[in-house]
């Protein structure tokens, strides 16, 4: 891959992240390869949130005093910048506490449609209706749909995964049919790195009139994503995976869908009129933001988006691609290591694959491998990474996952590879 | 004291002596609008004669800003063509959403220019627009007749 | 009331709150009387969150590396301190994004009980069952129950409010009956300041086997509260109203109830086992915390609780009581001002009343009064304060609310009273 | 390198050569336990003779810590009285939850003392307790027989 733009100055970026300067386990340099679970925050994000709290904090959309005005402006300005970051309009962006809540929001709103007014009819599900997911979903994009099916009597079906970690679309037309009401799938697998063919899935879903829900948790932080251009109906992502605060996520919904969808959480700030016996509800996005929201967290996420824009998402993606290729190449050279998900092609490159590299080591349990890596200062994740069915499909109970972000460099990859070899030595398998 | 900027004499006059207040018959369409944060409400009726706004009558409760702006509204639209009234509304909405950056045109907005100061207080913009939203909605409800 | 303890050194406390040092509207001192909507944060809370993010940030309960260990410890230590603050055990404390989510959690879990296993049978609701609330509830403790009733066919009933702003318990036995499955009520009204007789309500609910849900949003921040001693089944409160971060709230549930209640939000970290077709769930509190949680926010709320403990909740309550008495006395002297909720008795004191003072001014709309106060630097809230039915009951469309916290002093009350007089002058009614 | 503290030779020995592994008949009760974060699992059977733990047999997959601790478990409880076995379990649980602050008693825990280092790694404590939780659960399931 030829770099289209100037490469990242990782050393300069790293200086923005205070935590990367610390050491772990008796003075080892911290090699943080767990950004797929949660990313670290640059000073700019921490400062933005603090400045808000020290100067402008107030309840938003509820007060008429100056602080309330300023807080509301900061909150709505963040919404506008975050919306622009993913190519949509502000009224299509709902703040949630995390991506998980966003998916649950859609699932519960669909459940609520049965007892809501006629304008929500298109969301009603029942026996005979089908929801389609994939075998590579994070639990967050699987369990809510299982539960919705259980509550409504709808049927859950799913795409399989091929041995090399791609979605098996061979039965696309048999799986997504006139009975399908919703197709929920991940943009990029948090285990395999696999980037799924959104266009093909959306086209088929649209052809049968099914709604689409995109889990963009692992794509939006790592590459330019234009949700409107992708044509999905709903999408979710989390602030904490993209340099922003924990406690905030985003649900994107197409305007006309949010406009006719019944509410989920109810309470203050999402109403139009309340009487003791009944209530009516505000237009979106307020309809879906009950209670005092994640105010400073929205401001922090706005700053994270500004930071990513300044770096350039194209460059972030290229940088992570280079790290991924290096990791795959390095792991391929270590006997007894098997990578889950797409590997390098004959040219030493790989397409449609992001920077989550999960692997197993013959004779070393992932937990034990992780422990050795930790002892070397290398933070990876071990387990099934909230994708248990995928691990069962790949016939491994668990795996080691290294995941990359803009602050990682080739030295981090080298540390990972050294750690893997150390684990093999420690457990006597090399 | 920045208060005077917001509460221009014109606004206080309309508040104390609202024009066209009261609900009148006959009317072609009625709209009920409420401000969900403070409970202020307005019921507004529109009577058309062909393409002309023949009467606007209203009743409601609310703060000085919402009451005065509805009073100004009746001055600006009664006796005008529907298209004309709507374009006046657009100018007023633009002024209110302009954060104090929009220069109002007195020829178009007449007493409405007094609300330029309100536009600097985002929490009050909804107050100023309450009656206008009711007018817009009522016009839409006149449907085929317009 | 005689002070039992040394009074607060408000000037010293104020120095901990950076925002209180700022000015508004052309150099006016900020008089923040909107803590009932959201409180301000002391430096100690901001520092704790920042220290966590710069040193220990990681996904909790998901990783085996050192940062993940430290983050998990910080998160669970916060849970333990917050639980102790309200007299309960850590496994009875569920973190939510705000109090509103906590109430919705209980309401939705009850809705889910219909399709969950037999162990959840006691939560199932249907036609003939009744839910009892009060006319003074915040929308957050009203609309979720309206919606649950709508979804399940249960009936919503409610206690009325007396003219002086107390709960009308004269029909307690007629309202709470064998048909009642749940009684939800506020501990302290966010409009009237009224503190409700929890013991009487809990006793009656227990006598008929109904669950109790306490909205403790306005009590836990302002007075010592022992939820276990109160005997309620569930309670909620929000971090942002008690010096803590936005984006975090607490649901307390009695251990045996949380243990048999079906989940609400589903996804990662709340499961026991996941297969494509079905899942089983972790024990509480994890069962109710789906997805990456509000990690740094829990740490911040832990620091807020430490701060409040250091000050002493008894002293906070006494201090606010003194401010409330001063405000009520001062407002009573201004002709044309009417306070909603309990006023001073003959002895110039008032019992069972917290520091939210809402009032109306003859001839001056609350919005206009709030604007004049804002112009003087006094931040109050105007509107119905998310208690629209209560305002309708009191025959006012809206009110002005001043609400107090430990950082307010008698000078702030004087500014409020001056502002009210200024509003009367400005609008020519005095 | 702190690793050696955690992975004592005794642990690695039990991991490589587990004692009592395999599922055997007859048994009075069986328990299946899983670690929800990593998918490690154990199926464990208990056979009582009166008040004595006559046999513990097990099968499963997991890391060195969970495998070794289940192996140590069989050494510590087979042939002991139920009450005895449970108090040994309590001592082991106390050690594991002690964050490295609890001094293990070799007379009670024998090879189990090797896990003192694991107690310093909270994320691994669940691994060390997996087999023990299965043992406790299986014992409970023997019900009236015990
Ligand atoms: C009494 C009461 N209940 C519930 C709430 C809702 O709290 P939150 O918006 O933090 O969920 C509030 C505050 O807004 C309140 O004052
Ligand atoms: C692909 C994917 N989907 C969903 C989630 C859930 O995100 P959160 O836990 O922030 O809700 C994650 C991360 O944990 C993820 O990687």
TrEMBL record, chains A, C:
Keyword presence, Transferase: yes
Keyword annotations from UniProtKB, A to Z: Pyridoxal phosphate, Transferase
Gene Ontology biological process terms, A to Z: cysteine metabolic process
Matching Gene3D superfamilies: Aspartate Aminotransferase, domain 1 (3.90.1150.10), Type I PLP-dependent aspartate aminotransferase-like (Major domain) (3.40.640.10)
Functional summary from the UniProt entry: Catalyzes the removal of elemental sulfur and selenium atoms from L-cysteine, L-cystine, L-selenocysteine, and L-selenocystine to produce L-alanine.
Pfam family, one: Aminotran_5
Keyword Hydrolase found: no
Primary enzyme class: transferase
Organism per entry: Actinokineospora fastidiosa
Domain Aminotransferase class V as annotated: residue spans: 31-416
Protein name: Cysteine desulfurase
Stretches that traverse the bilayer: none
Lineage: Bacteria, Bacillati, Actinomycetota, Actinomycetes, Pseudonocardiales
GO molecular function, one term: pyridoxal phosphate binding
EC number(s) from the headed UniProt entry: 2.8.1.7
Cofactor: pyridoxal 5'-phosphate
Family assignment from sequence similarity: Belongs to the class-V pyridoxal-phosphate-dependent aminotransferase family. Csd subfamily.
Reactions catalysed, as given in the entry: (sulfur carrier)-H + L-cysteine = (sulfur carrier)-SH + L-alanine
Top-level lineage group: Bacteria
From TrEMBL, chains B, D:
One MF term in the entry's GO annotations: iron-sulfur cluster binding
GO biological process: iron-sulfur cluster assembly
Entry-linked InterPro entries: NIF_FeS_clus_asmbl_NifU_N (IPR002871)
Superkingdom, taxonomy of origin: Bacteria
Annotated TM spans: none
Domain NIF system FeS cluster assembly NifU N-terminal: 6-127
Protein name per Swiss-Prot or TrEMBL: Iron-sulfur cluster assembly scaffold protein NifU
């Amino acid at each position: 891959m030829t770099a289209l733009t100037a490469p990242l100055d990782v050393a300069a970026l790293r200086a923005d992240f205070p935590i990367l300067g610390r050491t772990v386990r008796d003075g080892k340099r911290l090699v943080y390869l767990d950004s797929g679970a949660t990313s670290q925050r640059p000073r700019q994000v921490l400062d933005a949130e603090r400045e808000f709290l020290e100067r402008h904090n107030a309840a938003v959309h509820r007060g008429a005093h100056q602080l309330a005005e300023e807080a509301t402006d900061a909150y709505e300005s963040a919404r506008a910048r975050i919306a622009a970051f993913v190519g949509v309009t502000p009224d299509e962006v709902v703040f949630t506490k995390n991506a998980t809540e966003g998916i649950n929001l859609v699932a519960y709103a669909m459940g609520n449609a049965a007892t809501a007014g006629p304008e929500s009819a298109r969301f009603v599900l029942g026996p005979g209706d089908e929801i389609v997911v994939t075998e590579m979903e994070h639990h967050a994009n699987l369990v809510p749909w299982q539960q919705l099916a259980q509550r409504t009597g709808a049927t859950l079906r799913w795409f399989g995964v091929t041995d090399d970690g791609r979605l098996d679309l061979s039965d696309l037309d048999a799986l997504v049919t006139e009975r399908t009401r919703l197709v929920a799938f991940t943009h990029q697998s948090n285990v395999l790195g696999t980037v799924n063919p959104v266009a093909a899935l959306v086209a088929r879903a649209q052809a049968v009139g099914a709604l689409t829900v995109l889990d963009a948790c692992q794509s939006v932080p790592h590459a330019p994503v234009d949700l409107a251009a992708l044509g999905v109906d709903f999408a979710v992502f989390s602030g904490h995976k993209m340099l922003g605060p924990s406690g905030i996520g985003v649900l994107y919904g197409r305007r006309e869908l949010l406009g006719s969808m019944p509410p989920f959480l109810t309470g203050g700030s999402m109403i139009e009129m309340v009487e003791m016996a009944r209530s009516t509800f505000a237009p979106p996005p307020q309809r879906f933001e009950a209670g005092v929201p994640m105010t400073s967290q929205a401001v922090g996420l706005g700053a994270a988006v500004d930071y990513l824009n300044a770096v350039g998402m194209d460059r972030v993606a290229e940088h992570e691609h280079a790290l991924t290729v290096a990791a795959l190449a390095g792991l391929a050279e270590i006997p007894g290591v098997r990578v889950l998900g797409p590997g390098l092609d004959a040219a030493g490159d790989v397409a449609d694959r992001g920077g989550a590299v999960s692997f197993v080591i013959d004779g070393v349990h992932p937990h034990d491998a992780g422990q050795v890596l930790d002892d070397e200062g290398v933070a990876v994740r071990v387990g099934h990474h909230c994708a248990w069915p995928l691990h069962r499909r790949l016939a491994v109970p668990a795996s080691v996952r290294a995941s990359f972000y803009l602050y990682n460099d080739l030295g981090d990859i080298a540390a990972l590879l050294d750690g893997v070899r150390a684990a093999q030595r420690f457990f006597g398998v090399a | 004291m920045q208060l005077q900027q917001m509460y221009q004499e014109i606004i206080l006059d309309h508040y104390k002596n609202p024009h066209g207040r009261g609900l009148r018959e006959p009317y072609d369409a009625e709209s009920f609008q409420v401000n969900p944060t403070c409970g202020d409400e307005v019921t507004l009726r529109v009577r058309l004669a062909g393409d002309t706004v023949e009467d606007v009558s209203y009743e409601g409760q609310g703060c000085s800003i919402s009451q005065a702006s509805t009073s100004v509204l009746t001055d600006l639209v009664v006796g005008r063509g529907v298209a004309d009234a709507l374009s006046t509304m657009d100018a007023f909405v633009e002024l209110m959403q302009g954060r104090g950056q929009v220069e109002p045109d007195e020829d178009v907005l007449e007493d409405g220019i007094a609300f330029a100061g309100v536009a600097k207080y985002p929490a009050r913009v909804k107050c100023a627009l309450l009656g206008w939203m009711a007018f817009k909605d009522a016009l839409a409800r006149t449907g085929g007749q317009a």
